[in-house]
Structures are given as structure tokens and as C-alpha cells.
Design goal:
The chain is mainly alpha-helical and 125 residues long. It has a domain of 84 residues. The protein has two helices and no strands. The chain is rod-shaped and about 150 Å long. The model has no long low-confidence stretch (mean pLDDT 91).
Length: 125
């Protein structure tokens, strides 16, 4: 009764550990014995570094473009606001000029009417 039959989980974990150990042993032997594999791994690292550098450069360029677009949008918005202010000022000037013209025309009409009235009074005397 001293013998204990290992359960399924114990057998499964032992098999997994054995596979991992065998894989590590194979990788260690393969890397140590094969200089071409080391060269391939170094080439992969170099490609990975170059890829990361290109990605960083693209990201920096994208950020620069976004910044320039934001600045351009701000300039356009500022120009639109300035044009709106100028249009409002122009409309105000035109309204003032129109009011002055109307006052002048009303004064001219009054003067003409007064002149006609005075002429009519003069004819009656």
C-alpha cells in the first residue's frame, strides 16, 4: 500500500516539464553548435531594430503632420474670424453712411419743401 499511482494532472505536468527541458536542451545545443543560426539570429535582430527605427520615424513624421495641420486649421480659423470682424465693421460703416445720407436727403427735402412753402407765401402777399 506504499505504492501510489500518479494522477492524470501529475502525469500531464511531468510530460510538459520533460518537453520543455528537451526543447531548452535542443535550443542550447543548436545555438552553440551552429554559427549560421547565430548569424541568422543577429540578422533578425538587426532587421527588428531597423523596423522599430522606421516605425519611430513614421510616428514622428505623422505627429509633425498633425501638428502642422492643427496650426494651419488655427490660422484658417483666425483668418475667418478676422474676416467676420472686418465684414461686421464694414456693415456698420455702411449703415452709418446710409443713415447720414438719409439725414442729408431728409434735410434737402425739408429745405425744398420749406422753399416751396415760402414761395407760395410770397405769391400770396
Amino acid at each position: 500500500m506504499g505504492f501510489k499511482d500518479p494522477g492524470y494532472l501529475e502525469r500531464k505536468s511531468a510530460a510538459t516539464d520533460a518537453r520543455k527541458a528537451a526543447l531548452e536542451k535542443f535550443r542550447a545545443n543548436a545555438a552553440a553548435n551552429d554559427p549560421a543560426a547565430a548569424e541568422r539570429q543577429a540578422a533578425r535582430r538587426a532587421l527588428s531594430i531597423a523596423r522599430e527605427e522606421r516605425a519611430a520615424a513614421r510616428k514622428a513624421a505623422k505627429e509633425a503632420r498633425e501638428l502642422e495641420l492643427a496650426e494651419q486649421a488655427a490660422r484658417v480659423k483666425e483668418a475667418a474670424e478676422q474676416a467676420k470682424l472686418e465684414a461686421a465693421a464694414q456693415a456698420q460703416r455702411e449703415a452709418a453712411e446710409k443713415a447720414e445720407r438719409e439725414i442729408a436727403e431728409a434735410a434737402e427735402r425739408k429745405a425744398a419743401r420749406d422753399a416751396r412753402y415760402a414761395a407760395r407765401k410770397a405769391r400770396k402777399k
